[in-house]
Design brief:
The chain is α+β, with helices and mostly antiparallel strands. Helices cover 13% and strands 28% of the residues. It is built from eight helices and 22 strands. Strand 17 and strand 18 form a beta hairpin. The radius of gyration is 40 Å and the shape is elongated.
């Protein structure tokens, strides 16, 4: 009796979990022995691949695929000659037991052709083929990123992406949501973004600051992984498996619950120092020296007293400790915080100086020379994006608000102050200020003018100027 094809049964995958291989007989009566081989793919990831192939390595006719529940599924073309059918699972889909329960993606290998499909939202059908325009997309063979997307949409566990193209996609003071690439047309047009990224300044109390990027988990989701793509920022790098880096540590046991946010400092396009904030841990981790490996084992660093709660008001000692940690992580020599010298004590009042003269306001010329409050010094980490308050390039001219030119203005003329006649007094006419009159009598030149005018303060105007010159000689 001729064989009608082979039925692949994913419910058999759990039997291959204890070892690496198992076999079962095709249920169509073809006497085909199917071998299941479990492997980790991509290597070092959190995903298992269960490959179903004919025991002798011969191609076979694919009649049907039964899902993890043993029921027939649809969406994958049948009656084609194939060499293998594989199912991908998340390592933690059943807690720590490791037993697979829900396939995320299927790989069908034919002669000269490999096609990928993902499970539909109803878990009854397969959708594909996956490619650059699918949801989620599969670009440059980056299986792990597509599988990460499926973990996010299937299990509501998020992956924080610290790639510079993600972290620096917004300017300082703004926020931008992101998540997996599964949301959109197949979700009824609903974009369910679960992470928000924003850029902030970490400042000391004496005006120095550096930029940090905050990735907030918006909801009670577990953190499944932290990754980035090496040497951004072009978006094409975020789909290059050779540039993918997984951040791992003994103290970071994924998946993690209770994580609220991940903060990251960047140098030369890559994260070098991160802070994980959560209910169960609040720790700093530093990037290791690069060795080209996909897995990076970050080490915990002690930065006591430096937390998001005081990022905007670090004392010099703590700020400099942070700068030293960035330097040891490969950021080079960065400006440190310095305490300005104390202001000199006020000069003692001179002999004979009255309170009125001490309290006199500054003249316009003096006020223009008064020292201004120093502006915040923004420290740019190597190859980091400039902030909106960065100074203009050297040599650039600045114009005052509302002006279109930076040409020098002509010198101002001294202002002539006209004093109303009704307010003039004898003292103002004679040049004698009331603040400087010591005795109650008028003497000298002032008394002479008073007599000549017979008590009329305006009588002074009837005398020619030469009379004053002769009189004062």
């Amino acid at each position: 009796m001729a064989s009608e094809g082979v039925i692949i049964d994913f419910s058999q995958n759990k039997n291959a979990n204890g070892g690496l291989t198992t076999t079962y007989y095709d249920s169509t009566g073809s006497s085909k022995t199917i071998t299941i081989t479990r492997s980790e793919e991509p290597l070092g990831s959190n995903f298992y691949k269960y490959t179903h192939s004919e025991a002798n390595g011969q191609p076979f006719l694919l009649k049907a695929i039964q899902g993890d529940d043993g029921k027939h599924t649809s969406g994958i073309p049948m009656n084609n000659s194939v060499s293998s059918v594989s199912a991908y699972y998340w390592k933690y889909d059943n807690g720590d037991s490791g037993l697979p329960t829900k396939a995320l993606m299927v790989k069908v290998v034919e002669t000269g052709k490999t096609t990928y499909y993902r499970k539909s939202n109803s878990d009854k059908d397969w959708i594909g083929p996956l490619g650059a325009n699918s949801t989620p997309p599969l670009i440059n063979g980056d299986l792990e990123r597509t599988l990460d997307d499926l973990v996010c949409s299937t299990y509501n566990e998020v992956i924080v992406d610290l790639s510079k193209s993600v972290s620096f996609s917004i300017s300082t003071g703004h926020k931008k949501p992101y998540c997996c690439r599964c949301h959109g047309k197949d979700k009824g047009g609903s974009d369910q973004q679960k992470i928000t990224v924003e850029r902030k300044n970490v400042s000391c109390t004496h005006k120095n600051s550096v930029t940090i990027c905050k990735h907030s988990i918006d909801g009670n989701y577990k953190l499944a992984n932290i990754r980035y793509y090496l040497n951004g920022p072009p978006d094409t790098y975020t789909n290059d498996p050779s540039r993918r880096r997984r951040i791992k540590s003994r103290k970071l046991q994924f998946p993690m619950d209770g994580v609220k946010a991940v903060y990251a400092f960047y140098c030369n396009h890559n994260p070098v120092l991160i802070y994980v904030k959560g209910d169960r841990q609040n720790k700093w981790y530093q990037k290791p020296a690069s060795n080209g490996a996909t897995d990076e084992h970050w080490t915990e660093v002690e930065l006591s007293g430096i937390t998001p709660s005081n990022f905007s008001k670090l004392e010099c000692e703590k700020y400099n400790k942070l700068i030293e940690a960035l330097g040891s992580a490969g950021c080079g020599s960065l400006p440190k915080c310095t305490v300005p010298p104390p202001l000199p004590p006020p000069l003692p009042a001179q002999s004979g100086q009255t309170a009125a003269t001490q309290a006199q306001p500054l003249s316009p010329a003096t006020a223009a020379k008064a020292p201004e409050k120093p502006a915040e010094a923004q420290t740019q980490l190597p190859d980091s994006e400039p902030t909106s308050d960065s100074p203009p390039p050297k040599g650039a001219k600045e114009s005052a608000p509302g002006e279109g030119t930076s040409e020098p203005l002509p010198p101002e003329k001294s202002a002539v102050v006209a004093v109303p006649a009704a307010t003039m007094t004898l003292g103002s006419i004679s040049g004698i200020s009331s603040a400087t009159v010591v005795s109650g009598s008028l003497t000298g030149f002032g008394w002479w003018m008073f007599k000549r005018s017979k008590g009329d303060p305006w009588g002074i105007h009837v005398h020619p100027m030469e009379n004053y010159e002769q009189t004062t000689m």
